[in-house]
Design a protein that fits this description.
Helix content is 40%, strand content 26%. The chain is of the alpha+beta class. It has four domains: 129 residues, 2-Layer Sandwich (Beta-Lactamase); 119 residues, PAS domain (Beta-Lactamase, 2-Layer Sandwich), CATH 3.30.450; 66 residues, no CATH class; 145 residues, Histidine kinase-like ATPase, C-terminal domain (Heat Shock Protein 90), CATH 3.30.565. The strands form four sheets. It has a six-stranded antiparallel sheet, with helices on both faces. Helix 12 packs antiparallel against helix 14. The longest helix is centred in the middle third of the chain and has 41 residues.
Length: 480
């Protein structure tokens, strides 16, 4: 089965000869042994003309966890995501220990060896090891997000100002004994109270004099014998503070107070709300402007007698409306993400109205996944879907008044895929590639804007156009 998959993929995506494919097959037989020996995921990729590669074989190590949940055989290794593979494929030399972004949107370390037939590079052998997350003592701990028991257990081990753990947390920490006296505070608590206007150090003071929330715990006496942990958020002057009183019930520490400065976070939230309103208004105006342009084109179409000019104006108007769809959705959400299903549904409705005739019974079905994408991606996807739908409705069902067009969406971790297929009579793909402006627009959008690949197959049973696109723009170089 593996040999059949390798042969199929090489024939579909590459120009490798049967002998060269045979060499790839032979190499694949030792892939599992290599994965086990190296405790790494192992792959064989074959290069494409555009600098990307296709994964034709894989093996997961048996002794350690793999970086992959699913198979990636048949998926694309993009040159911008896997620079080690692209470098070896381009130069024909080994590449060691470079970062890469997998098809499942995780980071790994790659080492790549060229697979050659004479001087010709026919594939790359790849070993990938997981990039483990590293933590340093200098990173602060957010104790307020832990369970009460865990917090209490940790706090009882913080006995003095020199405790490294007390200085690593990002909250102000105060400890109060049974008499209600502050017996400990970390440096963040000292600075916080100074910023609030307290002249003297809180250490040694009665907690009743410095408490920021009303609580009988401030006097060191429980309420009716019950001790409760208190969590609240208050505003003190220009500061917004999240305060947690954690009951410990020890002789030396009756309770602890954790104070987190939320001022910046709440300020950012308010600014985001204001920006959201401004963004919604901006997209609303853009949508209105685009629809105004479309209306002007519609008027021009009515005044034009030349059929060819009418068709060009109609296509231009439809493309403008496709772009306005994304802005319409963004004007409703106020954020920079839209549902891909909403975008495609609006495009479908626009195109259907454009081609509507009483006797024209063409069904357009939307199938598959629905998920959020960035606005820039959504706009490009909208234009691509618009062109592909128009091509199907224009050419697939000539001399017919019925048919089916399916739009299938598949969400991926890093790349997603959309397939537009019809059951029309097909066409010569090469002729359309040379002559069709619409298809040139699609090709350019998929490659330049969506960083994906476009595949078109057509025959007597219909046409299928498939393209994949990057879910979001990721810069590997910026990752440390």
């Amino acid at each position: 089965m593996e040999k059949d998959i390798i042969y199929e993929l090489c024939k579909q995506y590459t120009d490798l000869t049967d002998d060269e494919i045979g060499s790839i097959r032979i190499m694949s037989t030792v892939l599992q042994s290599l994965a086990n020996l190296e405790d790494a995921d192992a792959f064989i990729d074959c290069p494409l003309d555009n600098g990307d590669s296709v994964v034709v074989a894989e093996a997961k190590p048996s002794g350690v966890p793999s970086s992959y949940k699913n198979s990636v055989v048949g998926m694309m290794a993009k040159k911008e995501n896997e620079p080690a593979v692209a470098r070896t494929a381009r130069l024909g030399v080994p590449t060691k220990h470079m970062k890469a972004l997998t098809q499942e949107n995780t980071y790994v370390i790659q080492s790549v060896e060229p697979i050659k037939n004479g001087e010709r590079l026919i594939g790359t052998l790849i070993r990938e090891k997981r990039m483990e997350e590293q933590y340093t003592i200098g990173e602060r701990l957010q104790l307020s997000e832990q369970s009460y028991k865990t917090i209490a257990n940790v706090l009882t081990h913080m006995g003095n100002e020199n405790s490294w753990l007390a200085e690593c947390i990002e909250e102000a920490l105060i400890m109060v004994n049974q008499e209600g006296t502050v017996t400990f505070r970390n440096s963040i608590a000292k600075d916080l109270y100074h910023n609030l206007g307290y002249i003297e150090d809180v250490l040694g003071q009665s907690y009743e004099n410095i408490c920021l929330i009303k609580s009988d715990q401030g006097k060191g006496k429980p309420v009716n014998g019950n001790q409760k942990n208190i969590f609240t958020e208050i505003t003190v002057g220009k500061y917004t503070l999240s305060i947690s009183n954690i009951y410990l019930g020890r002789n030396e520490v009756e309770f602890a107070v954790i104070i987190r400065d939320m001022t910046w976070m709440r300020k950012q939230e308010k600014e985001l709300i204001l920006k959201s309103v401004a963004i919604k208004e901006m997209h609303h105006r853009i949508k209105n402007n685009l629809q105004t342009i479309a209306s002007l084109l519609r008027l021009q179409i009515r005044r034009t007698e030349n059929d060819e000019t009418k068709n060009v104006l109609k296509e231009t108007m439809d493309r403008i409306l496709s772009i306005s769809v994304t802005h319409q959705l963004l004007s409703q959400s106020g954020i920079d993400y839209v549902k891909i299903g909403d975008v495609i549904l609006n495009i479908k409705n626009n195109v259907t109205r454009y081609f509507y005739q009483p006797q024209y019974n063409i069904e357009i079905l939307l199938e598959g996944d629905d998920f959020e994408v960035e606005s820039e991606i959504a706009t490009s996807v909208a234009l691509v879907i618009n062109e592909l739908l128009q091509n199907s409705l224009k050419y697939a069902f000539t001399k017919r008044d019925n048919g089916i067009v399916r739009i299938n969406v598949t969400e991926g971790s890093l790349y997603s895929r959309i397939k537009v297929s019809d059951n029309g009579h097909g066409f010569n793909v090469e002729n359309i590639k040379q002559e069709g402006l619409g298809l040139k627009i699609v090709q350019s959008l998929v490659e330049d804007k969506l960083h994906g690949n476009l595949k078109i197959k057509s025959g007597k049973h219909g046409t299928t156009a498939t393209f994949d696109f990057l879910n979001k723009t990721i810069d590997i170089v910026s990752v440390t």
